[in-house]
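Figure S7 source data.
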Amino acid sequence: MIRLSFELDRMLISEEALQSRVKELASQISADFTNKKLVAVAILKGAVVFLVDLMRCLDPSVELHIDFMAVSSYGASTQSSGILKITKDLDVDVKGENVLLVEDIVDTGLTLSYLVRLLQEREPSSLKVCVLLDKPDRREAEVQVDYCGFSIPNEFVVGYGLDCAGMWRNLSSIYVVKERGELA
Ligand code: 5GP
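Tokens for the predicted guanosine-5'-monophosphate complex:
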């Protein structure tokens, strides 16, 4: 029998590079929403670290509110199931609001395109999408990303909020994960 395990392979994006890019994204968002109310909707759990760093860099002139949604995700596998279930919905009504959807990573695009459609149905005044990482190679559904941190190759990554079977969210840099098969 072959037992699969995961290990960190190499660092892809350093803590310094993450922090500096998050500041740049926050400046763009601040410029677009100066003196406006903005509801940032972060997708649990992967986007939490990104949201926290991003919001601390936003200009005080942005009237920022935050809320969270959770969808079913990869679980212990590194492959997307394509199956989506809302496991936690918003607490606030976003009708007439400026909404910023904050997501950790866009891969096939299935998650974000579903969430964008869902939020559009709630009639926000505007809806923008902010993702930390973009893996363009595996795109199946088109998504318009308004603020993007980094474009990365098609590799499974962890750290800075992103996990692999619940592990490694607490790393402050982003690492590529290697799958290892061992004879058990
Ligand atoms: P999509 O629906 O675009 O294929 O996938 C989006 C979701 O898949 C992300 O929110 C994230 O939860 C997960 N995902 C995609 N690629 C990776 C990856 O490289 N690492 C981790 N940890 N999650 C990923």
